[in-house]
Amino acid sequence: MIDKLKTEGIYTYAEAGEGPTIILLHGLMGALSNFKETFNYFSTNGYRVLIPELPLYKLPLLKTNVKNLAQFLKEFMEFKELDNVILLGNSLGGHIGLYFTMNYQEKVSALVLTGSSGLYEKAMGDSFPKRGNYEYIKEKTRDVFYDPEIGTKEMVDDIFKIVNDRNSVIRTLAIAKSAIRHNMSNDLPKINQPTCIIWGKQDTVTPPEVAEDFNKLLSNSDLFWIDKCGHAAMMERPEEFNKILHTWFTSRKI
């Protein structure tokens, strides 16, 4: 289903299902396909699911930041006439969801965070990006997962293409710096929406203590762990991820 993208105006997105609306928000290096199993599962189990393509490399450079990506989400929701949605974000997508919720709490019924930025990120350091160094990009891509085989050649090729395009690199670095600037530790206690935190125990990008801090700072949150799992739980352990989330939705009557 997620392969059937539609474009309307400036928006490219996938949509399926009926019921309460879930918007999936991908990360900085994440493709929409990272959410394939979650998209398919919930769109056939009583939910309307949308996943917009975030304009990570299309915004003017000065507007390439978390704030304006949250603004893009607001405009997308207005375009689709959506309100009272569930936001589910991985990595940067979680950060965008948090920033959006902080500013438009009335538009969000619940939050789901997995490997979210917003409190801490392990940067790739001065060595990022090594343009032209395919093996380095391959290693970094595979390190995101507990099982390195999840980092397919197709995925590595996509990321290699990004880091070897000057426009993409500049915007990638701008967003990464923006994510660090928009630390949300002081804002999280103001967010009261029910929040489901699902985290890989072996996440090396946003380590387990980050999940614990999110759980402490978000007053209405529940934390769930997935063992033998890295930074993208919905991708690496989709069946377990979907089961945890669906059970949580049921228990919270969402």
Account of the 3D structure:
- With 254 residues, the protein is of the alpha/beta class.
- It has one domain (6-251): Rossmann fold (3-Layer(aba) Sandwich).
- It is 39% helix and 17% strand.
- It contains 9 helices and 8 strands.
- An 8-stranded mixed β-sheet has the order 1-2-4-3-5-6-7-8, with helices on both faces.
- Strand 5, helix 3 and strand 6 (108-114) form a beta-alpha-beta unit.
- Helix 1 (36-43) crosses helix 9, helix 2 crosses helix 3 and helix 4 crosses helix 5 (153-163).
- The protein starts with 5 loop residues before the first strand and ends with a helix.
- Residues 123-128 have low confidence and may be disordered.
Overall mean pLDDT stands at 90
CATH class: Alpha Beta
The percent range for helix content is 25-40%
CA-based gyration radius:
17 Å
Give the helix/strand layout:
Elements: E1 6-8, E2 11-16, E3 21-25, H1 36-43, E4 48-52, H2 66-79, E5 85-90, H3 92-103, E6 108-114, H4 134-143, H5 153-163, H6 166-181, E7 195-200, H7 208-217, E8 221-226, H8 233-236, H9 238-251
Parallel strand pairs: 3-4, 3-5, 5-6, 6-7, 7-8
Antiparallel strand pairs: 1-2, 2-4
Helix pairs in contact: 1-9, 2-3, 4-5
